[in-house]
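Weekly puzzle thread! Below is a chain. First person to post its structure in token form gets bragging rights.
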Amino acid sequence: MSKLPKEHKFIDLSDYGRPIARVIANSLKNTSFTPIHVTICFIIAGLIGIYCIIKGYYWFAALFLILKSILDAADGELARVTQKPSYTGRYLDSVADIILNALIFLSVWFISNSSLWICLLAFLGLQLQGTLYNYYYVILRNKYDGNTTSRVFETSSPKALKGEKQAHVNFLFGLYKLLYGPFDKSIYALDRNAHKGKAFPKWFMTSVSTFGLGFQLLLIAIMLVLNLENIILPFFLGYTVMVLVFIGIRKTFF
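Winning reply:
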């Protein structure tokens, strides 16, 4: 099942890996590979990318960061083609993402001349950007009967779906709330009525998709191969101002 009905799909700049992800998912659907196995693969790809950043192998780092992004889409695609969505996979994916994001930014700090404070603030900015994108996207998905394993408001542990254990869901949900709760609350405080407004136009969602993790990783990969490692952290810190710009546009027009 696609994330949005055809008439509401927009050009998602962060989702460039989706066609390859579908190929991967279709090749695995009749095997013993599960979406969680694919999630583990993207974690490994991300860790290899981080190692390559630290060692200065920027082309290989870029390759593995983009591979991580593709596999990050493939686990969800595999869940859809096998019709086996799970909250375990949904929360494991998110927890892995935020931990890898932190390690990626620390590795960039290690090789650049940015201060540790810039690194911390840039990471917080990165997560706020991604949270706003996910917030608006999930609103659309819920409004138009998209994938319902993601919720606009993550307030309590959901009931485990068939084939998964409630204990696993509860544990991963607890980690999710610990790691993402402050960002979710911040974005909700800034735009608590977004779900009550009009449907977001396609051009708006395409613009906000620059906050998607896939696009963020692509930008990091490009800057690494161009030897612009010293501007990566300042860029993501500065780009955080667009959170307020997009929220302002949403409140004014939609």
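Puzzle host: Confirmed. Bonus trivia for everyone else. Residues 131 and 184 are 7 Å apart (CA to CA).
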